[in-house]
Specification:
125 residues, alpha+beta, 2 helices, globular
Length: 125
């Protein structure tokens, strides 16, 4: 059973994204599978993206996301800014990307907004 609002579920399906919804206690988690990354930006071309949805989503937006594998900037060999802390989930250590924003619009924003923020973080890394 999906915990995402129907419009978010439909958006992911229309975009053709492979995803998994799961929980860790009371925490709801969305994992996007094998997301393509900007060409030549990182040391990998694909990554899984984990998004922890806060209590009250979609009226409250997430402020971080996590990737597997850990991503380093190509040519520099370093982690992107504010993306160097571990997060353990299901026996794997994910790379935390700390990206805070006060621009969430309750009643309007949802998974589409979250994905745009993730894409922006990858592009500007």
């Amino acid at each position: 059973m999906s915990f995402l609002p129907e419009k978010d579920n439909e958006y992911l399906r229309v975009k053709g994204l492979s995803f998994e919804e799961c929980s860790d206690g009371s925490q709801k988690i969305l994992i996007l599978k094998s997301c393509p990354l900007p060409p030549e930006r990182f040391d990998s071309s694909l990554a899984d993206v984990l998004i922890m949805l806060p209590q009250g989503f979609p009226d409250i937006g997430p402020d971080m996301f996590y990737t597997l594998p850990w991503l380093r900037l190509r040519g520099k060999g370093c982690y992107p800014r504010a993306a160097d802390q571990p997060f353990n989930f299901r026996g794997q250590t994910w790379q935390r990307w700390s990206r805070h924003s006060n621009e969430w619009r309750p009643g309007r924003d949802g998974i589409r907004t979250v994905l745009k923020r993730v894409e922006h973080a990858f592009e500007s890394a």
